[in-house]
Write a structure and sequence with these properties.
The chain is built from 38 helices and 18 strands. With about 950 residues, the protein is of the alpha/beta class. Among the domains are: about 20-145, Tetratricopeptide repeat domain (Serine Threonine Protein Phosphatase 5, Tetratricopeptide repeat); about 470-515; about 530-665, no CATH class; about 675-690 and about 710-900, Rossmann fold, CATH 3.40.50.1460.
Length: about 950
């Protein structure tokens, strides 16, 4: 009988090559019995389920006649893998041993990779680990680049599947990428895209994962690989669901459902029951609540749960159970509880914190809809505990933050449910209101700025003790190479292939540098309790803690909502505020209107004040003068200073000093430090300048894509130089000795070499470049100082400055903004200075105009020099700017981060006496000052319109 793999399986892709017949594969093998391609022909034929039995018999017979042909058992393993993992184990083992005996490294690596995957699916992790080591050893010994690439992919798979270390897995895959693209085989490319798509998804990089899986689907369609096409389509649909959960654009639900149906159709073409079950569960998860959709979902979930109960199917069965439980909650409470409990038992048996957290999330949802609220709270709290365990599997802080961000909504949900249990929503309380507030506050602290808290509170000595001299030397060598590459990238004349090559080298060095960092240690962290914070606040302070979640999730279950906790010495209150999606739109609109500088933001300022602050401020004790704000989500970039109660009224900063803290625990950490002693130094760096590699000095700013091109062509900042002299003058009669570096003196090398232990104020008036997509490339732009520096001071370098509780003032654009990770907060330049030991940072949410920045800083330091706290001095400066007629865009973006109550200096008790000086000299000096002030007044923009000469690129701090 002539057996043909049916063409209907390929009908969606007219360009896909027609499948071979079994007879043609047998003829091809007879002609080339030792070749790999001849054996692989059988796998192409077996893509359709109806062909597999005949293909299996043919391969088994050929293997018996050709015992030294390792490709035959390997392909037989591929064919059996389409239907059953367990059935594929034996042929893969035979293939691996045959190739090992014949010393054929490529075949041995491929067989070992597939065998490892089967063992892992069966829960045989130790055996899988041994085969992972074997793959790496054989590939390394072979010296073949394509085998090295495959070994790196296996190593990455082991890291994320067994050790759950997604960050390291991602970086290992990036090392494999240049070995796979563009010269690798199609099989290697499919393997790479499959693994990288999964890792990117689990890290929460949804857009990147979508692009990768779209490439995978396209590649599999052109090569006729139904199995991987189904996998790619499933992942695309799952990503659409994740994006729907994150962004809450309900109109996207139909698109996600359509993708799930496509994934189900692709899975059915493979005949693989596991792929079909996965796609069926996902489709059921996206169906609505109509009777027809309920019936369809029941059929799909029955298919999913019809899988045999084996170790390989355990993961899928537990997800099918929690999906069915959530769908049954509204119609069959007892059945929903039974399903969710069964899912939880399976997850507990797996001992995997990821699936335990997912199962507990589902169990909590079912309990909320079917049982008393305390039962739901118990499961939601356990889910958060599982997330904490998952977080600790990551070997670097960045991966911890990325992974944690994907689970922020679980913390918002727990916080909202806890407040509901305390009666905050009007529901009869099952917790005392005080207990609910205390527990909600604790959940909030577990959510926020965790990696920064770890860096500041955990023992640095403990970290350094495990950091060997060899690793430190390797990091130093990598850092030197990073500088050299970045110096090349800063040359605007570098174009084309040279720039592409340098960027690839930079990416590899950045990954290497991150791998060489000490493993983060959590230490014995103690989060701030509500009682402790209330007791630590002064009578004139209030802490406003924002929790910005969604009102409901995709199932219609409460997602926690959005709240503000108002904490004072006298106690704590809570108020409901608009949910995340509404606030995100309102905050974005407000910031855009502020940027217009025409007063059009007043209506939005009043609305946001009423929504966020109205009830909160109305109940504050009359003694409160300072608000400490703990923002969340879209509120990180909101200029609170410009909000106002009435259109004609004064801005918020007229009533209160304002400070921003990442979390109450960090505020308590800074507040608990001993107050700085008077004295020390103020180090001022202003208007750094440099000469580029091709010998041309900077003359004008330019907005270019990429931070290196942008930094290379930034213009000089003449007003920043004036600002530096003004800071020096303002601090001259204080207990602090100012030291000013301008122009070429304001260098990266000088700053790194300086003894900063006595520095109480570090002021930097310079350009900043911010890369929201790659936050660790953001930088302050300084003079290089030596050939060993590049002049761009980046977070990894800032964090090593070893500041000693200093106030850092970043008179630079967007130095308080950057990528926002849910929970972790803003990955800004300011954050790096806290890691270096700063106690407070003054920075900007948006770009600054050079002259306006200089004027605002002159006002700020004039007040700081009188002994005011940082927040009081900034408030006074902002009020002066507002009273002078400047729009909020000129002053409201400057914020105090950290310890807003820090007093950095005070005036000396006795100023230098003027008696004894020649009166004529005094008159002459006064005349010189008056003339200078007149000259400056003509060249500066003080409110209103700026003279045309001050406009242009060089007048804006980047």
């Amino acid at each position: 009988m002539l057996l043909v793999c049916p063409a209907t399986a390929f009908s969606e892709a007219p360009s896909r090559p027609q499948p071979p017949t079994l007879e043609s594969c047998q003829e091809r093998f007879a002609a080339w019995p030792d070749g790999r391609d001849a054996a692989m022909c059988f796998y192409q034929c077996a893509q359709e389920a109806s062909a597999r039995e005949a293909v299996t018999r043919a391969l088994t017979a050929l293997e018996a006649r050709h015992p030294d042909q390792g490709w035959l058992p390997l392909v037989l393993g591929h064919v059996r893998m389409l239907s059953s993992h367990k059935a594929a184990e034996a042929p893969y083992r035979r293939a691996a041993e045959t190739f090992h005996r014949l010393r054929q490294a490529e075949g041995e690596v491929l067989a070992a990779i597939n065998l490892r995957a089967i063992l892992l699916a069966q829960g045989r992790a130790e055996e899988a680990r041994q085969w992972t080591r074997r793959v790496v050893e054989v590939a390394s010994t072979s010296g073949l680049p394509d085998l090295r690439a495959r070994a790196l992919m296996v190593e990455a798979s082991h890291l994320y599947e067994v050790e759950l270390d997604l960050g390291r897995a991602f970086r290992v895959l990036k090392r494999a990428e240049p070995l796979v693209f563009p010269e690798g085989t199609e099989g290697m490319k499919k393997q790479y895209l499959s693994v990288m798509g999964t890792v990117s998804e689990r890290l929460g990089r949804l857009d990147e994962a979508s692009d990768i899986n779209a490439r995978l689907v396209e590649l599999t369609r052109s090569t006729g690989d139904l199995f991987l096409e189904a996998h790619g389509r499933f992942t695309l649909a799952n990503l659409a669901l994740r994006r729907l959960e994150r962004e809450h654009v309900l109109s996207d639900r139909g698109r996600a459902l359509a993708l799930a149906r496509q994934a189900l159709a692709a899975a059915e073409r493979t005949g693989n029951t596991t792929l079909v079950a996965r796609a069926a569960r996902l489709t059921a998860d996206l169906l609505g609540d109509s009777p027809e959709e309920h019936r369809e979902a029941d059929v799909l979930l029955a298919r999913c749960l019809a899988l045999p109960e084996t170790p390989e199917s355990q993961e899928l069965r537990l997800s099918c159970l929690w999906t069915r439980a959530e769908r049954r909650a509204g119609v069959d409470p007892a059945g929903a509880i039974q399903d969710s409990e069964a899912s939880l038992r399976l997850a507990s048996e797996r001992n995997d914190p990821l699936y335990l957290a997912l199962a507990l999330r589902g169990r909590g949802t079912v309990a909320y809809r079917t049982q008393p609220l305390p039962e739901a709270l118990a499961h939601a709290e356990r889910a958060v505990d599982a997330l904490e365990a998952l977080r600790q599997t990551q070997s670097d802080a960045s991966s911890q933050a990325e992974l944690f961000a994907t689970w922020a909504r679980d913390y918002h949900r727990l916080a909202g449910w806890t407040l509901e249990a305390g009666g905050a929503t009007g529901r009869a309380h099952t917790l005392s209101p005080r207990a609910a507030l205390s527990r909600t506050f604790a959940v909030s602290e577990r959510l926020r700025a965790r990696t920064l808290l770890d860096a500041l509170v955990a023992s640095r000595a403990l970290v350094d003790a495990e950091d060997t001299p060899e690793r430190r030397a390797q990091r130093s060598e990598v850092q030197s190479r990073l500088v050299a590459v970045q110096r090349r990238l800063l040359d605007p004349l570098l174009t084309g292939a040279g720039r592409d090559a340098a960027l690839k080298e930079l990416q590899e060095l950045e990954r290497r540098e991150r791998d060489l960092r000490p493993v983060p240690r959590q230490g014995a962290l103690e989060f701030a309790s509500l009682d402790a914070v209330e007791q630590g606040l002064e009578e004139d302070e209030a802490l406003l803690v924002f929790l910005v979640g969604d009102d409901v999730d995709l199932t219609g279950t409460s997602a926690g909502g959005a709240w503000v906790l108002v904490v004072t010495r006298a106690g704590t209150r809570v108020h409901r505020i608009p949910e995340r999606t509404r606030l995100a739109a309102a905050a974005t609109l407000f910031s855009g209107l502020v940027e217009r500088r025409d007063g059009s933001e007043l209506g939005a300022a009043v609305a946001l004040h009423a929504q966020l602050l109205g009830p909160a401020l109305a109940g504050l004790p009359a003694t409160v003068r300072r608000l400490l704000l703990v923002p969340d989500g879209p509120l990180h970039d909101l200029p609170f200073a410009a909000l106002r109660e009435h259109r004609e009224g004064a801005p918020l900063v007229a009533r209160y000093e304002l400070g921003v803290v990442p979390s109450a625990s960090l505020w308590r950490h800074w507040r608990g430090d001993a107050p700085p002693t008077l004295g020390g130094e103020a180090l001022v760096l202003a208007d750094p300048e440099w000469v580029l590699g091709h010998g041309e000095s900077r003359s004008a700013s330019a907005a270019r894509s990429g931070i290196f091109e942008e930094a290379a062509l930034l213009g000089a900042l003449p007003e920043a130089r004036r600002e530096g002299f003004g800071v020096e003058e303002a601090l001259r009669d204080t207990h602090m000795a100012p030291r000013l570096w301008v122009g070429p003196e304001a260098s990266e090398r000088a700053l790194k070499d300086a003894d900063l232990s006595r520095v109480r104020v570090l002021h930097m008036a310079a350009h900043a470049v911010v890369d929201a997509e790659a936050p660790e490339r953001s930088a302050l732009v300084l003079t290089p100082g030596t050939e060993e520096e590049d002049g761009i001071l980046q977070p990894r370098e800032i964090s090593r400055l070893r500041l000693n509780g200093a106030l850092v003032v970043l008179s630079a654009c967007s130095s308080a903004s950057g990528a926002v990770l849910p929970g972790e907060g803003v990955l800004s330049l300011s954050r790096a200075f806290f890691e270096a030991g700063a106690r407070a940072v003054v920075a900007s949410l948006w770009p600054l105009r050079d002259a306006e920045a200089a004027d605002l800083m002159e006002r700020f330091y004039r007040h700081l020099a009188t002994g005011m706290s940082v927040s009081a001095a900034l408030r006074a400066a902002q009020l002066e700017a507002s009273d002078a007629g400047l729009p909020p865009a000129a002053w409201a973006g400057l914020v105090v981060l950290g310890d807003a109550g820090l007093v950095a200096t005070a005036p000396r008790e006795e100023a230098a006496p003027l008696s004894g000086l020649d009166p004529a000299l005094l008159m002459a000096a006064a005349l010189v000052v008056l003339l200078a002030l007149g000259f400056i007044a003509r060249g500066r923009w003080r409110g209103g319109r700026a003279p045309a000469a001050t406009r242009g690129a060089a007048a804006r701090r980047r």
